[in-house]
Amino acid sequence: MNILSEIENLINKVETNISQKNRKEKIKLYAYGLKNKIKQTEFALDNLNNLSWKTDHTTTTTQDSILDISGQVAFYCDSFCVFLYSCLDVLSQLINQTYQFNLDEKKVDFFKVKNKLSSNYSGETIDQIFNKISNSRAFNNLNKYRNCSVHRRQIFIWEEFRSVRHTNGYNISSTEPGTETIRIICDNPYDLNPKIIQKREIPQYLIKQRKYILKEINEIIKLLP
Fold first, then answer.
1. How confident is the model at residue 176 (pLDDT cuts 50, 70, 90)?
2. Residue 32, exposed/middle/buried by CB under 10 A (0-12, 13-18, 19+)?
3. pLDDT one-digit tens code per residue, 186-201
4. What number of CA atoms fall less than 13 Å from residue 115's CA on the CB side?
């Protein structure tokens, strides 16, 4: 079952198994909120996929367009990082209500709920998954990109354009003769002299981040009582 189906299944269980109206409505509210954040993440990634073959050299944007192609790539890259991280914060709101931690909604985030789980459910599967996420490279990089985008500056993206040709007569659908565009997100967005040693290509690297984070969220959703 995919993650959106798991969330819908949780909503159905809440409707049947929880009698307290206020608690039921809050859990459902955050469950639907999580679904929407996942969809917004997918929307940003879909647009990055659609932009992957476009460049400002080969594509003419409309005169009233505020952002050129590079600007659109930066926008959707920022949006992806913000919304994917937001999935974890909204998940934390959902856990706060489900486990009745009674944390103030305005103060709930991933780390506060992680600490609550460590204090009250140490060693249990949900605690282990939260620890696994927080210790993962995918999460820590995502947190840096999101923090940089929201609180500091635009994330550094390297663009490279290569002339591409191949022997005639072969059916190669992935690369037509012309120009190939390579976009790489920097290794560490906090660096004022950014590096691209890791070669984290857009959107391929972001797809891997999305896959890892949503897989772990899916496992947590299955555990919620």
1. low
2. middle
3. 999 999 999 999 999 9
4. 6
Domain membership of residue 97 as a residue range: 3-58+65-149+208-223
- Predicted TM-score (pTM) of the model is 0.90
* Side-chain-facing half-sphere of 177: CA atoms under 13 Å: 7
Whether 221 contacts 7, CB under 8 Å: yes
176 found inside a domain? no
Measured over the CA atoms of residue 132, residue 134, residue 140 and residue 146, the dihedral's sign is: positive
Q: Is residue 217 part of a domain?
A: yes
Q: Answer positive or negative: Cα dihedral of 84, 154, 141, 109.
A: negative
User: Is 193 inside a domain boundary?
Assistant: no
Asked, for residue 177, whether it belongs to a domain, the answer is: no
Half-sphere exposure in the Cβ direction for 35 (13 Å, CA): 15
Residue type, 151: H
- Burial (CB < 10 A; 0-12, 13-18, 19+), residue 135, is exposed
pLDDT surpasses 60 at 175? no
Given a contact cutoff of 8 angstroms between Cβ atoms, the answer to whether 48 and 203 are in contact is yes
Residue 34's pLDDT is: 98
DSSP 87: H
d(CA 37, CA 44): 11
**Counted domains in the chain:** 1
Chain segment 79-116, per-residue pLDDT in tens: 999 999 999 999 999 999 999 999 999 999 999 999 99
Contact 76, 92 (CB under 8 A): no
